[in-house]
Amino acid sequence: MLTKIDHWIRENLILKTHIYTMRMPEEVPAGVQVQELPESPTRRYRFRFICNSPKKTDQLVEFLRAKGMLFTTQVVEESSWYQPLIAPKGKSIVFVLFWLISMVLGAFGLFRLVISLKNNPEFMKNFQEAVDLFLEKS
To answer: CA 32 to CA 48: how far, in whole Å?
Structure first.
């Protein structure tokens, strides 16, 4: 189950929108990468615009619609070295971090408890007596 934070991470850091057009528009929003595709008889589009954020995508699509230009969009999952860390497939990074932090805090609390019991002379005396009693019965 993915949370809203997981969806936001995926949408803004992993997924890229490719917009293909036949001709170059007059304006392109800042931060949008423009690639001219090689001409070929089978290729329908000549330019590819790569948008990293949904806002840039919306701006470019609105502009293309206003100008009546033919375009198509494709959402592509960009593969990078950090993708498995921040957006693992089928897992929620929020839940993974929650359980990791819970386990670290639990281990730290257990460690502190053992240290405080070890420094308590009355507990150590009772514990030693219990161990001696156990060893005598064995």
So the answer is: 10
Q: Do 113 and 71 lie in a common domain?
A: no
Total number of domains constituting the chain:
2
Domain hosting 103: range is: 93-137
C-alpha to C-alpha distance for 8 and 92, rounded to whole angstroms: 12
One domain, residues 13 and 78: yes
- CATH number of the domain encompassing residue 73: 3.30.70
The pLDDT tens digits of the residues spanning 22-35 come to 999 988 988 899 99
The pTM assigned to this predicted structure is 0.69
Position with higher pLDDT, 39 vs 65:
65
The tens digit of pLDDT for each residue in 77-97 reads 988 888 888 888 888 999 999
Give me the DSSP letters along the chain.
---HHHHHHIIIIIEEEEEEESS--S---TT-EEEEPPP-TT---SEEEEESSHHHHHHHHHHHHHHT--EEEEEEE---TTHHHHS-TTS-HHHHHHHHHHHHHHHHHHHHHHHHHHT-HHHHHHHHHHHHHHHHH-
